[in-house]
């Protein structure tokens, strides 16, 4: 079954709430009648919080993450976002942090210490790799990168001191889909925690905690916020794993601002309808590009030929609007001729907003175990399909590829 003909993800992996996920997205994390009937949770700007009695102060200090204690631990709008994400992700509780990278740092440090070992898929988000190498390495944690297509063979890289397996699916830039059930099972058999970056699929299209992962995170900056105007990281975890994750997040001490929490909650309310459009447009662009003379390969998990396509069909309930294309060989000047003059696709980091983006990328700079796989290949372009008219986006890509074909190599 192709991604395009899948049943809707509504209702898949439901929690105890009997409603479909589209309904839950509208209602989670808000209680209007606790706020004078106001539909959206109010924003509180606060650092200091006052307590009327010593007993109230001591009670709040016993668990500052459960109530309103001090601004760094969050305000009611923070807790509303955390509750909403935990409900959608299927976790025990949620955590909001100032960025996706901060959330990744919390995942990496929650279960590791000096002398420990971490296994990381070789196609993770580049800042994840930087944190693993530079931050963990500085404090005596060893890191091994493995082929994302290793499946159960990931167990061959575990050591007695391996504490964490860091997963991402699909992989950053190259969009391979790992055999998550096989890797999770191997980690559980070895007593290794698992953490997964789910920014690409969101809780709509993949439920990592239901698959057995211990911790899940998203760069809420991307699809959750959805409008390219706020930085955000969100996490959830199992009941067993949550305390260590909460402790790590508190030690990092990087909460999101209340206005960013408000923007994330507002974006969350339209996540389902936006993702459906990103998915539809992304598939239309990917299929069109697959037949273009200037394109050697389209790396979209929903299309046959993308590594891990069968795992995608088995484990995911849909696709987002982010994918990559490998062009026919050409110089930097030819790439510039294409991307410098796009009418609708603009160059910029991040993705997940309403606007379409295009970004030249070189996976070799962020690979070790699989670097040879990307040597001698054509230029790679990462494409984010926004909410514009698909026909207009296709015309823009066709015009860009015509410039690429016509330009002379330097």
UniProtKB/TrEMBL annotation:
Q: Which InterPro entries match?
A: Cys/Met-Metab_PyrdxlP-dep_enz, Cys_b_lyase_bac, Cys_met_metab_PP, PyrdxlP-dep_Trfase, PyrdxlP-dep_Trfase_major, PyrdxlP-dep_Trfase_small
Catalytic activity of the protein: L,L-cystathionine + H2O = L-homocysteine + pyruvate + NH4(+); an S-substituted L-cysteine + H2O = a thiol + pyruvate + NH4(+)
Q: Which domain of life is it from?
A: Bacteria
Q: Name one Pfam family in it.
A: Cys_Met_Meta_PP
Keyword Lyase present in the record's keywords: the answer is: yes
GO annotation terms (biological process): L-cysteine catabolic process to pyruvate; transsulfuration
Keywords, A to Z?
Lyase, Pyridoxal phosphate
Where in the sequence is the signal peptide annotated?
none
Q: Which cofactor does it need?
A: pyridoxal 5'-phosphate
- Which molecular-function annotation in GO is an example for this chain? pyridoxal phosphate binding
Residues recorded as bearing N6-(pyridoxal phosphate)lysine in the entry:
222
Q: Which PANTHER family match?
A: CYSTATHIONINE BETA-LYASE-RELATED (PTHR43500)
Q: Which family does it belong to?
A: Belongs to the trans-sulfuration enzymes family.
Q: Which NCBIfam families match?
A: cysta_beta_ly_B
Please state what the protein is called: Cystathionine beta-lyase
């Amino acid at each position: 079954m192709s991604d395009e003909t899948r049943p809707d993800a509504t209702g898949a992996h439901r929690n105890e709430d009997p409603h479909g996920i589209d309904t839950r997205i509208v209602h989670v994390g808000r209680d209007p009648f606790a706020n004078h009937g106001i539909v959206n949770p109010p924003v509180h700007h606060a650092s200091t919080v006052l307590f009327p009695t010593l007993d109230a102060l001591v009670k709040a200090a016993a668990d500052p993450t459960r109530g309103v204690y001090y601004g760094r631990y969050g305000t009611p709008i923070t807790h509303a976002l955390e509750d909403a994400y935990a409900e959608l992700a299927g976790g025990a509780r949620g955590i909001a942090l100032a960025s996706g990278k901060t959330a990744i740092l919390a995942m990496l440090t929650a279960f590791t210490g000096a002398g420990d070992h971490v296994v990381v898929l070789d196609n993770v988000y580049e800042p994840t790799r930087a944190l693993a190498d530079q931050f963990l390495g500085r404090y005596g944690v060893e890191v091994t990168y493995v082929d994302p297509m290793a499946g159960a063979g990931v167990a061959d890289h575990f050591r007695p001191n391996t504490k964490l397996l860091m997963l991402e699916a699909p992989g950053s830039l190259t969009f391979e889909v790992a055999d998550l059930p096989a890797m999770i099972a191997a980690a559980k058999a070895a007593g290794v925690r698992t953490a997964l970056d789910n920014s690409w699929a969101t809780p709509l299209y993949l439920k990592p905690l239901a698959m057995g992962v211990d911790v899940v995170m998203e760069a809420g900056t991307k699809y959750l916020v959805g409008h390219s105007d706020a930085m955000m990281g969100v996490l959830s975890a199992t009941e067993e794993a949550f305390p260590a994750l909460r402790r790590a997040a508190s030690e990092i001490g990087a909460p999101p601002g209340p206005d960013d929490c408000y923007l994330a909650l507002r974006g969350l309310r339209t996540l389902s309808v936006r993702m459906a459009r990103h998915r539809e447009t992304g598939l239309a662009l990917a299929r069109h590009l697959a037949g273009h003379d200037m394109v050697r390969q389209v790396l979209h998990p929903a299309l046959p030929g993308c590594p891990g396509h069968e795992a995608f069909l088995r484990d995911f309930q849909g696709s987002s609007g982010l994918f990559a294309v490998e062009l026919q060989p050409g110089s930097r000047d030819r790439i510039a001729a294409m991307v410098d003059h796009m009418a609708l696709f603009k160059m910029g980091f991040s993705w997940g907003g309403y606007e379409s983006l295009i970004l030249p990328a070189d996976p070799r700079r962020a690979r070790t175990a699989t670097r040879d796989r990307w040597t001698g290949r054509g230029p790679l372009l990462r494409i984010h399909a926004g909410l514009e008219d698909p026909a207009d986006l296709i015309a823009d890509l066709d015009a860009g590829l015509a410039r690429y074909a016509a330009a002379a190599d330097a």
